[in-house]
Amino acid sequence: MNTCAPPLVDQLQPLPLTATTPGSTARRRVLAVGLIGPGRVGSALLAQLRAAQPRLARDAGLDLRLCGVAASKRMWLDCDDPELRVGLGSGAERAQIWRPGNLDEFAAHVTGDDGRHALLIDCSANDAVAERYADWLAAGIHVVTPNKLAGSGPLQRWHAIRAACANGGARFRYEATVCAGLPIVQTLRDLLDTGDELLAIDGMFSGTLAWLCNRHDGNHPFSTLVREAHALGYTEPDPRNDLSGMDVARKLVILAREAGWPLSLEEVDVQSLVPPELAALSPEAFMQRLPELDAPMASQLAAARAGGGVLRHVASLDRHGHASVKLVVLPAAHTFAHTRLTDNIVQFTTRRYCDNPLVVQGPGAGPEVTAAGVFTDLLRIAESLGVRA
Ligand SMILES: NC(=O)c1ccc[n+]([C@@H]2O[C@H](COP(=O)([O-])OP(=O)(O)OC[C@H]3O[C@@H](n4cnc5c(N)ncnc54)[C@H](O)[C@@H]3O)[C@@H](O)[C@H]2O)c1
Ligand SMILES: N[C@@H](CCO)C(=O)O
After folding, report:
1. Which cofactor does it need (predicted)?
2. Is 258 annotated as a binding residue?
3. What pairing do the DSSP bridges indicate for beta strands 62-70 and 269-270?
């Protein structure tokens, strides 16, 4: 939800992404795009792509062609159509012709047979989609995703994805898997590529838990706040992934692997806020029993306050591969105590940034900012494309 007034910069002419003369076709590139997972993030991204298409064509010579949208059971092809409505609500369904979902057909359709550049965006939280990345990349299709399952899943699959990129030349970007739209993966990449050495990463990596810690002041039951965070699009599709600490653990694994450390999810020491008796329920049954978290969370809050501290969800990773995720009590003067709303904060301690770590901070969850992170990845790939079609 974006409640900010339009910034002044919107009134200025945007700068070109590449050195094109407006209207010139000298550097005009076509990028065919398919979106998988039109949920909260996917729908926000569709809206952003639609809004940016004319500007990108005019100022950057980039012809962004939205060729299809695939949901869990059905897909819609040939949707490079100004009438395509975003959000895919009931009105949109009436306006579109859906076919049964088939990711092979979907990828082939986006790729086309005219040698154009093709890019698939996975905005699902589905492992079966992540399982396809290596094949798509090997076939020359670029992949962009906020889905953490490939980056934090089996190491063998992760290596296959990296190998497919190295061998096939297609690019895989996943900035939005860590802290939504914040530049975390790219910052780490830049540090390492310029010869710095990572010593540790510490911070708050959950927008949902940051927001819950900020809002949980004793005036509202914790369960009410979790429902609100879900409705605002901050949580994972199943909020237990946030409350269990597993979503943050996945982010640590993604960053560790980026640094070349072969960390696996099982190696992260994670403290869960979900009691064992609620862990195996269906998502719907879990949401019904959410109030069972109210009393334990109220008592954690009271204990923190009694000691003059605040509750914060903190994660750490060091160069020996030790990774931990937990709810802690911090002194009210601590840097992490002064974050707002869904703020994430990530501290990189490196050989260069040693006495005073490099810090990135800002909103770390929500459809708009996450979609913007995905869009940025798309643009980074588009910048590197040659003219083909
Ligand atoms: N919401 C955030 O703030 C945020 C931030 C960073 C990353 N993410 C990640 O972005 C992704 C999407 O999150 P969301 O909040 O939009 O979730 P969502 O549940 O709103 O959307 C997911 C969509 O994927 C679809 N889907 C599921 N399986 C599919 C399949 N096999 N093929 C095609 N579509 C399928 C679902 O039907 C749904 O429309 C997740 O991987 C999440 O971890 C979300
Ligand atoms: N559910 C996640 C989204 C961003 O990855 C969070 O709250 O941080």
Report:
1. a metal cation
2. no
3. unpaired
Annotated binding residue at 73? no
Which atom of ligand 1 has the smallest separation from the CA of 103?
Answer: 32
- Closest ligand 2 atom to Cα of 178: 5
Residue 73 is a catalytic residue = no
Q: For 326-347, what is the mean pLDDT? A: 96
In this prediction the pTM is 0.92
For residue 119, pLDDT over 90 is answered with: yes
Confidence tier at 99 by pLDDT (50, 70, 90): confident
Superfamily of domain 185-364: Dihydrodipicolinate Reductase; domain 2 (3.30.360.10)
Distance 122 CA to ligand 1 centre (A): 8
Domain 20-180+369-383, second-level architecture: 3-Layer(aba) Sandwich (3.40)
148 annotated as a binding-site residue: yes
Out of 240, 251, 257, 313, the active site residue is 251
Ligand 1 binding pocket (C-beta < 6 A) is 36-42, 70-72, 123-126, 128-129, 146-148, 176, 180, 233-234, 236-237, 365-367, 370
Q: What are the φ and ψ backbone dihedral angles of 29, each rounded to 5 degrees? A: -120, 145
**Over the stretch 234-279, which tens digit does the pLDDT of each residue have?**
999 999 999 999 999 999 999 999 999 999 999 999 999 999 999 9
Q: Where does the chain hold its CATH 3.30.360.10 domain(s)?
A: 185-364
Q: Which two tokens stand for residue 52?
A: 């940016």
Ligand 1 atom at minimum distance from 38 CA:
39
Domain with CATH 3.40.50.720 in the chain: 20-180+369-383
At 304-324, the pLDDT tens digits run: 999 999 999 999 999 998 999
User: Does 41 carry a binding-site annotation?
Assistant: yes
Q: Name 48's Cβ contacts closer than 8 Å, sequence gap at least 6.
A: 371, 372, 375
Q: Are strands 172-173 and 142-144 parallel, antiparallel or unpaired?
A: parallel
Residue 217 is given by DSSP the state S
Pocket flag, ligand 2, residue 363 (CB < 6 Å): no
Pairing relationship of beta strands 198-204 and 309-318 according to DSSP bridges = antiparallel
pLDDT of residue 20: 43
Q: Would you state the pLDDT for residue 286? A: 97
Measure 207 CA to ligand 2 centroid, in angstroms: 5
Report the C-alpha gap between 98 and 44 in whole angstroms: 20
Pocket lining: 234 vs ligand 2, CB cutoff 6 Å: yes
Kindly report the average pLDDT of the chain as a whole number: 90
